[in-house]
Amino acid sequence: MKRHLITGASRGIGRAIAEKLAAAEVTLLLHGRDTVALAETRKAVEPHCAKVILLVHDLAKPSGVSDLIAEIGDQRIDLLVNNAGVAVVKPFAEITQIEWEQTVGVNITAPFMLTQAFAPKMPPGSSIVNILSVAAKTGFPNWSAYCMSKFALEGFSQSVREELRDRKIRMINIYPAATATSIWNNVEGEWPRDKMILPEHVASAVAYALSRPTDVALENITLSSLTGNL
User: What's the pTM?
Assistant: First the structure.
């Protein structure tokens, strides 16, 4: 029985990944903060997998991450998907300390703590997937906090990848361009959703990378729309 932990599984990319990876021999551990939306994800995947465990914790706070780790306990994880993320979009001079710390907490500290907690117990052939962004490679105006966090996770994951290589644990980084999720509901301005890729496209890339033989590492996948990046 495989155990897959997916953060930010309430909706969007996280839900799409959960739906794509649901299988009879898989237990899905799904994290989210929105209990109603997380229940909808459970409803979608439960008929297709062995078991679903819901984990409701606030990853913006180290105590919330620690509580999630404690709830999972000593049972091993075969796949960790660091997907949960927040985006503060505004000129850098207007970013509050609270917004900055929340971005660091969810986008950097949580993946660090989860990777540190679960990677040592992962058996050979396991994988860690980080949902990054094209913003991990390029800076965009008004996205300084978000870009900072993705650049940081990029550096962390590249280093840890080399530490885990001898143990046959794969570190897979996914770099989607603008993706049509609810995150844009809180971003000011007009953003053409029809030019964005879909969460299902990201989920398919994750599933493809995981489907490679365990001695093959498809380590970096960039996804963009043929209409061009926003």
Answer: 0.94
| pLDDT score, position 189 | 67
Contact call for residues 83 and 127 (beta carbons, < 8 A): no
Q: Are 184 and 193 in contact (CB under 8 A)?
A: yes
Strand partners, 220: 173
Rounded Cα distance, 177 and 196, in Å:
7
Catalytic: which of 118, 146, 151, 175?
A: 146
Q: Give the burial string for 184-219 (b: 16+ CB within 10 Å, else e).
A: beeeeeeeeeeebbbbbbbbebbeebbeeeeeebee
Alpha-carbon span 96 to 83, nearest angstrom: 24
175 is catalytic: no
Domains of the chain: 2-223 (3.40.50.720)
Helix (H) or strand (E) holding 216: none
Residue spans of beta strands (DSSP E) within 11-69? 26-32, 51-56
For residue 143, give every residue at least 6 positions away whose Cβ sits within 8 Å of its Cβ, in sequence order, or none.
87, 89, 135
pLDDT tens digits, 11-54: 999 999 999 999 999 999 999 999 999 999 999 999 999 999 99
Q: Which of 85, 147, 122, 135 is nearest to 3 (CA)?
A: 122
Amino acid at 57: H
Q: What is the pLDDT of residues 144-182, one digit of tens each?
A: 999 999 999 999 999 999 999 999 999 999 999 888 777
Q: Band of the pLDDT at 225, cuts 50, 70, 90?
A: confident
How many angstroms separate the Cα of 205 from the Cα of each of 29, 136, 152, 219?
A: 20, 17, 22, 11
CA triple 20-161-82, angle to 5 deg: 40
